[in-house]
Amino acid sequence: xxxxxxxxxxxxxxxxxxxxxxxxxxxxxxxxxxxxxxxxxxxxxxxxxxxxxxxxxxxxxxxxxxxxxxxxxxxxxxxxxxxxxxxxxxxxxxxxxxxxxxxxxxxxxxxxxxxxxxxxxxxxxxxxxxxxxxxxxxxxxxxxxxxxxxxxxxxxxxxxxxxxxxxxxxxxxxxxxxxxxxxxxxxxxxxxxxxxxxxxxxxxxxxxxxxxxxxxxxxxxxxxxxxxxxxxxxxxxxxxxxxxxxxxxxxxxxxxxxxxxxxxxxxxxxxxxxxxxxxxxxxxxxxxxxxxxxxxxxxxxxxxxxxxxxxxxxxxxxxxxxxxxxxxxxxxxxxxxxxxxxxxxxxxxxxxxxxxxxxxxxxxxxxxxxxxxxxxxxxxxxxxxx
Length: 386
Ligand SMILES: NC(=O)c1ccc[n+]([C@@H]2O[C@H](COP(=O)([O-])OP(=O)(O)OC[C@H]3O[C@@H](n4cnc5c(N)ncnc54)[C@H](OP(=O)(O)O)[C@@H]3O)[C@@H](O)[C@H]2O)c1
Known about the structure:
Distance between the termini: 25 Å
Structural class: alpha/beta
Number of helices: 10
CATH superfamily of the largest domain: NAD(P)-binding Rossmann-like Domain
Largest sheet: 6 strands, parallel
CATH class of the largest domain: Alpha Beta
Number of domains: 2
Bound molecules: NADP nicotinamide-adenine-dinucleotide phosphate
Strand content: 15-25%
CATH architecture of the largest domain: 3-Layer(aba) Sandwich
CATH topology of the largest domain: Rossmann fold
């Protein structure tokens, strides 16, 4: 059994643990008032005062607690408390996570470090300033992470007021209220803000480039971004792309699950091949966002898996990885008319977030294989899994 390597996170506690085995790790610690994040551990014991086993979201320590903290580490562990002696800051980040039951919100809930207060749609209506105010008064967060959005891209063309209410005006109110209270606001943007002038382009868009939305959804999301940047000085706006995650597989579905379902139901599936982007696994995006927001490097970022593909290529790879033989045929956007116009190329350049966090997200093919493995859709032994 090899010893776990512990690397102190560049910006703050806790550390990042990288391990390829399942060693037990014993850490001596002192508690000065915090919540222990236990997601990555299969069991946790704090002796002599408290103990817990998975799945637990956290254990609240009390000032003055001292003892021995024992961990059983799962192979996929990515985040662990700091090395010996373990003394964490009493001023722990208290995060209100809006959209907590959504696709990205669910993975952020697992990955964020701090005291996480999940806020779903039943607890907050972002279009209502009073609802935001009540939430902030009650939760008293030091940080708000907003993943809520109206993201029915085609429907937004016929419901522009609703899209704007959620993605623009609701976000404006949230940004104003966070800004005036000195709360850090983390907001999720979209690759769809690019498009105009992108036809024929085969390079990635950087954060410095001028956006050009081509749909109601994209325009409403861009306005939301601007409001966050204008009204809340301590902000992270993170644009991402083509999300798929486990949370969406049952309730709403996502592109990957839709393609697999169609491939099982139909003799052939046809998918557009003239829209390029980077499909991204919410688990990976959540991980890099969690790392970014422990810094004070506020600003605008892009965060996606790496590489780039057309939706046709993504569908073909998903079908192949699932061991299905259904033919996947490329078609043009003109052959599959949709109400909302979509970018021909919305590939995002992620160098900035990679530099700040010291992390790179894996290629989209590897992320897709990992996702399908988790959903049980990956054909065992399929070739080409990175
Ligand atoms: N999905 C993608 O491919 C994609 C691509 C690029 C960027 N993004 C952006 O990434 C973020 C997360 O996307 P996602 O795929 O995780 O979305 P999602 O699964 O639809 O989650 C959004 C969450 O927001 C909640 N919500 C919706 N309207 C609300 C409102 N008026 N007030 C309060 N909560 C509300 C939803 O609750 P209910 O479901 O209960 O209404 C849901 O839990 C969004 O900002 C989106 O624009 C997504």
